[in-house]
Amino acid sequence: MRADRPAEAADDYALTPVPREARHSWVSVAVQRFGQVSSFQQFMVGAVLGYSMTFQDAFWAITFGSVLLECITIALGIAGVREGLSTSVLARWAGFGHKGSAAVGLLISLSLAGWFGVQNGVFAEGMHDLAGWAPAWVWAVAGGTAVTVIALYGFQAMARTAWLTVPAFLALAGYAIVDTLRHHSLDQLATAPPPGPVMSLAEGTTLVAGAFVLGAIMTPDMTRFNRSPADVVKQTVISVTLGEYVIGLTAVLLGHAARSADVVGIITSSSGLLGTLVLATAIVKINDWNLYSSSLGLVNSAEVLLGRRLGRRGVTVVLGAVGTLLSALGIVGHFTGFLTTLGVLAPPVAGVIIAEYFVVRTCRPVFDRARADGVLPETGAQWLPLSLVCWAAGWAAGTWVGPGIPAVNSLLVAFLLYAAVGLVSARRARARRAVPAPHGLGDRLARSGERPPETVPYDA
User: Fold this and answer.
1) CATH number given to 21-433
2) Could you tell me the residue ranges of all domains in the chain?
3) 272 contacts: CB under 8 Å, gap ≥ 6
4) Are 443 and 457 spatial neighbours (Cβ–Cβ below 8 Å)?
5) What CA–CA distances, in Å, run from 171 to 153, 174, 275, 305, 345?
6) Which residues cross the membrane (predicted)?
7) Is the pLDDT reported for residue 206 higher than 50?
8) Percent of the chain with pLDDT over 70
């Protein structure tokens, strides 16, 4: 039965497919994606690379990391736009099963809610250092409340916010960067040795990919509002490429110029009020998506585990209030190590979903039937043990395998293991469903396509 569209629209289609009439232009979605990639987090990653790598090595680290991110983002984004579902709901059929998708939802919700609090704490401390007239907890409450209100009203409110904050951030940050670099020779910065401890290319690539891999996994949350797979490809290539190269490489130069990895402090402290505005626009345009995707993951997990359908708006308010409170108390910063550990679990999730949706494809007929009616597919398996084994294997490979890039190792191991075992299992399942081979002469002739002799009864 088709969902109640007005009610689902008010809840931003948290648990149902986004209908065609509710989709947006690719530019509107691309601005938000670019806002995620071109954040202060990207500045910090680039500054760390510049502090510990040559410009050339940093360029290749950003290139390899960006290619990995674009492959993950495009694959998951296409699944999202085709089915119109968020990552955690998509996972019910794409690899993890009904109950297994709750684990995916909890991973996304806990990780992104935590990063919402961490970034809100960074915002509060920065505003306190720059403005000084109010304690940090006041700024934490103000920033957390503002972002919660934006996320509360969903995709359209975040799109309108992005149209304001993204151009403002680029203009303000660009001015601050030019002001910081104008006393340095770009040629010297591009050829200078790293001022800090040397980082390997593999470590740099892992840093680039790991900084945004969780954002790549939540891509269906965003691309379910796109209109076509082509839109997903365009917005991903443009936003990830520009965000990683323009922001990332600029931050590399800043790291060389300041001989420090604290590029955030460099920009804000040297720019006064301008730095304050840069910090504010940088936090808002990524933190609303942290909170939004966190609420989608928790709504899915609650329905699966508790059998209760929670409203996305109510969940957003609760998560926003908790994250804001923890950042105001200054506690949330102690969780960064835990959140980083959770991030290691993210790449195998992408590997399993991509392998199921594009290689094994047992979920595709189910999706095809449901898509025609604009409803969720019928409930399938509750648990798929293969996905949990691949998830654990991917995490182990990313954690303990020495050679290579941990993020790539974990994703590839989960992807290859699920694809190999899944294809064999699907082939065996098709064989079991096949009609048993007949034994009569007529059946053998029927299989060969020949007509039986006139003197031989056809059912002999």
Assistant:
1) 1.10.4160.10
2) 21-433
3) 130
4) no
5) 27, 5, 12, 46, 36
6) 58-81, 93-116, 136-155, 162-178, 198-217, 237-257, 263-284, 314-332, 338-360, 381-401, 407-426
7) yes
8) 88
